[in-house]
Write a structure and sequence with these properties.
The protein is of the alpha/beta class. Helix content is 54%, strand content 13%.
Length: 202
């Protein structure tokens, strides 16, 4: 197994890069997908979330209403801390278990983590960190065009994240994604070649 930690700011195109790596043969463990899985009824974070935030976060079918949860969980710093204390360990444990299931294979595993921190390199097997980067104005335009964000919301979400400089400083490889899908495909081909080279030189 060889593992890549893939990260990037909102609107950078991290998910598109992950999809293209999967097309080329990689296994994907996506923190966003895992985050949804751990809060389903019976999931490890479901009961603690209901206990902490109340039954008002539940839909009629007893699944967690993500917007209702966000409304109460982001109301103040203490609530945010409680949300993170419940969900982050559950997400981390699930990602580690999924990765361990591939440990004895020769798979290329992509761990897609929106905010990849040094702690992830300690708790998970991450051989190289790849950062998907783009200019802020490009990210804003993508959020408006493809995800229907109001411009003010798009800029606020970007401003709330760590800076491009901080993110890139942790990278072993930076993939610049500021053009279209054709150019992105070429960039991912170059990344794939780099991964092959790194793996072959151990």
């Amino acid at each position: 197994m060889f593992s890549i930690g893939l990260t990037g700011g909102i609107g950078s195109g991290k998910s598109a890069v992950a999809d293209l790596l999967v097309e080329r043969g990689a296994w994907l463990i996506d923190a966003d997908e895992v985050a949804r899985a751990v809060v389903v009824p019976g999931g490890p974070a479901y009961g603690p979330l209901v206990e902490r935030f109340g039954s008002g976060i539940l839909s009629a079918d007893l699944t967690i209403d993500r917007q209702a949860l966000a409304d109460v969980a982001f109301a103040d710093e203490a609530s945010v801390a409680a949300l993170n204390a419940i969900t982050h360990p559950a997400i981390g444990i699930e990602m580690i278990e999924r990765q361990r299931a591939l440990a004895e294979t020769d798979a290329l595993v992509v761990l897609a983590i929106p905010l990849l921190r040094p702690i992830h390199r300690e708790t998970m097997v991450i051989d190289q960190v790849v950062v998907v980067d783009c200019p802020i104005e490009v990210a804003v335009e993508r959020l408006i065009r493809y995800r229907a964000f109001p411009e003010a919301d798009a800029r606020a979400r970007i401003a709330a994240q760590i800076s491009r400089e901080e993110r890139v400083a942790e990278a072993d490889y930076v993939l610049v994604n500021e053009a279209g899908l054709d150019e992105l495909g070429v960039a991912v081909d170059a990344l794939w070649s780099w991964i092959d080279d790194v793996r072959s030189h151990g």
